[in-house]
Structures are given as structure tokens and as C-alpha cells.
Amino acid sequence: VAAEYAATIKPSDRHAVLKARWFMEKSKHTALVKELIAAIKSEPAKAFTGKKVIVTGIMVEPYDVLDIFDENGFAIVADDLAQETRNFRQDVPADADPLMALAKAWNEFDGCSLATDAAKPKGQMIIDAVNKYGADAVVVCMMKFCDPEEFDYVPIKRACDAAGLMNLNIEVDRQMVNYEQANTMIQAFKEMF
Questions:
Q1: Distance between CA atoms of residues 8 and 46, nearest Å
Q2: Do the strands 166-172 and 51-57 form a parallel or antiparallel pair, or are they unpaired?
Q3: d(CA 64, CA 82)
Q4: CA-wise closest residue to 112 among 133, 66, 143, 144
Q5: Were both Cys, which of 24, 58, 87, 162 would link to 29 (CB 3.0–4.6 Å)?
């Protein structure tokens, strides 16, 4: 829905809906999201004149960073963020032992910097998401001082470059108080289109 209604759904709004999942009972959150989607879809989609991006990383916060995307005409149409959709990208298999079920799910989880995977499928997974959601570019939101994320950046960049896909790497930090570096980089990225 965020891809189809990119002119309507701001990056900060999309993030707030997904983040609310952490603070609500899941079935209530799901019901509210379904209601929200129905309300959005009841109106025709407005033309979006900006650029659509997929974001990847651990998180994109604080909200001031998300607002920079919006101010520069970028819509976040999908994500591969540990804090957002990566959490429910894969179901936990049924098992009589709930802890074993969680262990099995983690063992089979692909495309996460924090999960060891020598095949490094994350780059292709992001390219597939770009194609699925009609995105124009990928923005890697690198958590400051996160070594696993830094190691995964190279395969992501290579995959984007091989696909001829524009990509940007910005640094994020929950303790940020000055957003000028991110703002400057996103503004410069906008000029590249």
C-alpha cells in the first residue's frame, strides 16, 4: 500500500504504523492496520512525483531523519529494517516446544546482518524488493558502530551496482541531535536523479 499510495503515506507515518506493533497486542494491531489499509484504498491513489526508495539496516530513527526523506521528495515504499518488516518477514514454524520453534526460525533466517549466512543473500533480496515495489533506489541506513551491518554493506552495494540501481549509505544513530550530514547526503542523492 505504501508503494501504491506513495503520495499519501509519509515515511514517518509508515514508520509509526509499523513501530506501533511493538507496543500493542498483535491481533489488535493487525486489525487496526487492516482498517487503515481499507480506508487508504477507499480513495484513488494520487500521482507521486518524487522517488520511491527501499530502506535497509537496523532502523531509521529518529523521526527527524524520516522527515528529511519526505522533505526531499522520497517515499519509503518498503523496507528491510530489523526494527520493522524484517521482524515478520518469516513465520516461526509450529513446534511443541516454543523455544525450539524460535531457535529453528532463527537458524533458517536469511538476509539479516545479525544472522550468520555465508551466502549473503541480502543484496538479491533487496533487489527483488525494488522490483516488487517499483522502487527507484536503495538507501542503506547504517547504524553507527554496527560491525555486522558494515560487513553486509559491501554485498548490498555490489548487488545494487550490478543491477544498475542507485544507492546511498547514510549513518543513523538513536542519539542523533544534528541531522545535517544525513540531510546533505539525501539532498545530494536527490540531485543525482
A1: 7
A2: unpaired
A3: 19
A4: 143
A5: 24
